[in-house]
Amino acid sequence: MTPDLPREVVALVNGGPPGTAILTSRALHYGDGVFRTLLRHEGRWLDFDRHYVKLVHDCRALELDPPHVGQLEAELEALGGGRAQPVVGKIILARAGGGRGYTPTTRQCDRILLRYPAPRFPASHWSEGVNAIRSTVMLAAQPRLAGVKHLNRLENVLAARGWPSGVQEALMCDAAGNLVCGTRSNLFWVEPGRLCTPKLAHCGVSGLMRARVLELARSLGLPVDSVEAPVERLRAAREAFITNSLIGLWPLRRFDDHDFGAPGTVSLRLQQGLAHPALLDSP
């Protein structure tokens, strides 16, 4: 444990305790890195292999050399926890080297790993759905970073503020008014004969649970389309849901003033197929 951290948080930097070198990290100064968040349940990091594939993809986008899978897995195991109660792990791969200036001088990564207590939510978030609003914060277009879970998340920070009571997510659009994602989730909705999700060609994060849902839907024979669509398409949908690697799948019960009557049949079918553990606030 690190004395300067909250007691319930455990951290490792390059396999050891954090030191003052983190103060000059390019992650801190420029957001020069990528990250993934994963759940440890019953002593196992869920979907670690899939998370690693995503990390490798995102590292390539920033011209970073990812660590070996075995090294990263061993350091995650060294964080411990997650047997009696689930915990959350965060993997940050930040470009190594300090000093001033934007220009990178290496492709090597520093490995920053953290362990947190898992969040807890009411069972109704899974069984009855959640409420979402449209954020007034627009996502900027940068095709070279589209889909990448990089460390620059200020748009999400801005969009996560000032929600009305009873709202669990804010959905974000690009400058053209097309749906992209939630502040912490990917979005899906059901139209006649198909499952739709935003295309993510210009911005947004391609989450691991999004990939799992797309794979599962195709295996169940559900046609899937990645689309560029305005908010009106969502309001006209039969049902909708959001996903991420901690919550799994939450049906959308309401979006702004539109009710979906959650959960829908497709949402339930996919939720059951994912079999993701629910982080209930009352076990």
UniProtKB/TrEMBL annotation:
Cofactor(s) this protein cannot do without: pyridoxal 5'-phosphate
Matching entries from SUPFAM superfamilies are given as: D-aminoacid aminotransferase-like PLP-dependent enzymes
What name is this protein filed under? Aminodeoxychorismate lyase
Instruction: Return the broad EC class.
Output: lyase
EC code(s) of this entry: 4.1.3.38
Q: Which Gene3D superfamilies match?
A: 3.30.470.10, D-amino Acid Aminotransferase, subunit A, domain 2 (3.20.10.10)
The reaction(s) annotated as catalysed by this protein in its Swiss-Prot or TrEMBL entry are:
4-amino-4-deoxychorismate = 4-aminobenzoate + pyruvate + H(+)
Taxonomic lineage from the root: Bacteria, Pseudomonadati, Pseudomonadota, Gammaproteobacteria, Nevskiales
Main function? Involved in the biosynthesis of p-aminobenzoate (PABA), a precursor of tetrahydrofolate. Converts 4-amino-4-deoxychorismate into 4-aminobenzoate (PABA) and pyruvate.
Q: Name one GO biological process term.
A: folic acid biosynthetic process
Species this chain originates from = Stagnimonas aquatica
Source domain of life? Bacteria
Does the UniProt entry include the keyword Lyase? Answer: yes
Regions annotated as coiled coil? none
